Amino acid sequence: MEKNGIIHHIELYVSDLYTSRRFWEVLLIDHLGYKKYQQWERGISYSKGNSPYIVFVQAAKEKLLPAYNRTRVGLNHLAFSISDKKKLAQIRSELNSLGYKELYPEKYPHAGGKKHYALYFEDPDRIKVEVVLEN
User: Fold this and answer.
1) Cis peptide before 124 (omega within 30 of 0)
2) What's the pLDDT tens digit per position in 2-48?
3) Could you state, in order of their start, the residue ranges of all structural domains in the chain?
4) Where are its TM segments located (predicted)?
5) What is the secondary structure of 33-97 as a DSSP string?
6) Residue 1 — very low, low, confident or very high, per pLDDT cuts 50/70/90?
7) Could you tell me which CATH class the domain 9-61+76-133 is placed in?
């Protein structure tokens, strides 16, 4: 398989590593099949098979402002595939019960359009996270 140009990993700096880990572990480990890959004092990463791994690093205090805003230049969101509607509903229920902010709940599951079946949440730093049904 050709590997040139394939994303190797994604690294995100977060305002509070502990808080971010709680959110991302529910999604990545509990529901999407990722495992802890690497861990060190100021960061952690998660991997799933041969997929790109995802890294979260504690930002230095002096680097916390301005706060992240997905509508500014830069990363808008991360999207993950899922193949089961029931699993998507389970993720929605669990993240809501834990108090995380669902985006566009009044349009669920078609906030991305009539032919797009997806769930949208914000992580603790307000990064938009999409879980989209892939058949």
Assistant:
1) no
2) 778 889 999 999 999 999 999 999 999 999 999 999 999 999 999 99
3) 9-61+76-133
4) none
5) --EEEEEETTEEEEE-TTSPEEEEEEPPGGG--SPP-TTSSS--EEEEEE--HHHHHHHHHHHHH
6) low
7) alpha beta
